[in-house]
Pentraxin family member
Amino acid sequence: LGKRAVWLAQLLILSFSVFSPADTRRKAFVFPTESVTLSVPVQKPLKAFTLCLQVYTALAHPYSLSSYATRAQHNEILLFREKPGLYSVSVGGGDLTVPETFYTPRHFCVTWESQTGITELGGWKPMVRMSLRKEYTVGSEASISLGQEQDSFGGDFDKTQVLVGEVGDGNMWDFVLPPEEIRAVSTGGVSIPNFLNWQELKYETRGVAVLHTRLWPRDRI
């Protein structure tokens, strides 16, 4: 009975901590095998957003960096590496492709706003702006996954598209950051996120994902 009580106590602690806050400052999730996603529950429609994250990987095959799915649209927001030198951004199922002009470790910022549909993928070095899903609203009650694309709400993952590497500094705002703030964020500056804050992250891991001190320095190129 004593051993069973201890086992039950451990089980309850683990279950309670699945969506508990963790100290993720100066740390990154390491995906050592083709395995996992990190899900963050959010419940708010979006008319604009800025999504930034740092990625470090040696993979050559296609993989998902960040997947934001709702029950109505599994590609509400998707940042995907199609092949070496080519990335794609999807909003509401529509997508555009962007050639690579930066080197590892990579810091990405995706911006989009509904009124004009203006979309940009960049970071420290801005890229050409395009228009995507004008007057669209990104759905609420979403599941956000890092490292794997969702082909349905919170599931239907393809192991051939998984990211094996590291992801850190993932933040999101419900508005478009101006270029000077994006440059500041890309070089370690501060712009406090109001939608998803890496330093106050609540997450659920599936498979093998380990939180370690990140490899890249605070200042980025």
Notes: The first helix runs from residue 2 to 16.
